[in-house]
């Protein structure tokens, strides 16, 4: 029974890190392109606001999970939340501050 639990734990851990890597790799091209070009014309402001809030909530969930921290969840959402907030900031600057 203990061996089966260890296999399940390893499986969940591998799935978590695989999800983490794919989420970051899927998200980074948009963030890098936006940071590089500063072009936010095709980006919806509410989307990046909600993604930032959701990522921050997932970060807290991963950090405060008991008995162990869910590192894959925390690290993924730390990276994606940071990128969301940067893109959100560029979008706000382009749409509201720059147009004044």
Low-pLDDT regions: none
What's the tally of helices? 3
Instruction: Tell me the number of strands.
Output: 0
Major β-sheet annotation? none
Helix/strand/pairing category: mainly alpha
State mean pLDDT (0 to 100 scale).
88
CA radius of gyration is: 17 Å
Helix proportion: over 70%
Task: Give the DSSP E fraction (strand runs of 2 or more residues).
Answer: under 5%
- End-to-end separation in angstroms reads 66 Å
SSE string, helices as H and strands as E: HHH
Q: Which of globular, elongated, flat, extended, rod-shaped describes the shape?
A: elongated
Give descriptors for this structure:
100 residues; mainly alpha; 3 helices; elongated
Annotate the secondary structure layout.
Elements: H1 2-37, H2 45-64, H3 71-97
Helix pairs in contact: 1-3, 2-3
Explain what you see:
The chain has 100 residues and is an all-alpha fold. It has three helices and no strands. The protein is elongated, with a radius of gyration of 17 Å.
Characterize this entry briefly.
This protein has helices spanning 2-37, 45-64, 71-97.
């Amino acid at each position: 029974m203990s061996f089966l639990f260890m296999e399940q734990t390893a499986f969940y851990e591998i799935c978590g890190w695989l999800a983490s890597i794919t989420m970051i790799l899927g998200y980074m091209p948009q963030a890098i392109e936006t940071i590089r070009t500063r072009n936010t014309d095709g980006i919806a402001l509410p989307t990046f606001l909600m993604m930032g809030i959701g990522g921050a909530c997932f970060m807290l969930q991963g950090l405060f999970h008991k008995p162990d921290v869910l590192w894959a969840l925390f690290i993924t959402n730390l990276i994606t939340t940071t990128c969301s907030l940067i893109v959100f900031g560029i979008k706000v600057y382009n749409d509201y501050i720059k147009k004044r």
